[in-house]
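User: Predict the structure for this protein chain, please.
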Amino acid sequence: MKLFKIAIVCFVSITIISSCRKISVDPELPAATQEGKNTFGCKVDGRIWEPKGSFSTPAFDLSYDPTWNGGTMSIKAYRSFKENPDINIVTKEFISISLGEVSKPGQYSFNTQDSLALGNYTMAVQDQTGITEITKVCYYDAAEDSRSGMLNITKLDMGRGIISGTFEFTLTKKNPITECNPVLKITEGRFDLKM
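Assistant: Here is the predicted structure, written as structure tokens:
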């Protein structure tokens, strides 16, 4: 009987351990906080996007100058990854957001050509097998292509050096590139950065 109990305990333990290995954690966006946690995330055409730097490029960079143009903010986020670790094809993505005349929390529109809120997205696929060769580039420029959306600065604390907010914008290519979507949607964006 004692041997039977030990066998059952072992069986249950092995079942629990093997089922834990099968659990995969889906990526999640960082919480929309206002504490200077140095987080940034959004969805690009529905897929979760978070910065991932490399040895030569930081995951993100924030600059804020309260003396230029009534307060100027710029966020540049970078992500580099391989779809398949066995193939030497690297995808690099950049998202940048800039805003002028920002000195306090508030909502800022991406909607007009005169707007001081700009958002850009670039994606380049590189074959690094031999000499690095770019095989695909998609570039959306808020200054050239049409744009719409909203940037909401939820916290601008100069004393603690924190800038936080949420954003979403859509970029539509005026001259679509064959390999790229003519419309790019960035949604559920949030950042909580230290200056």
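Residues 28-194 form one domain.
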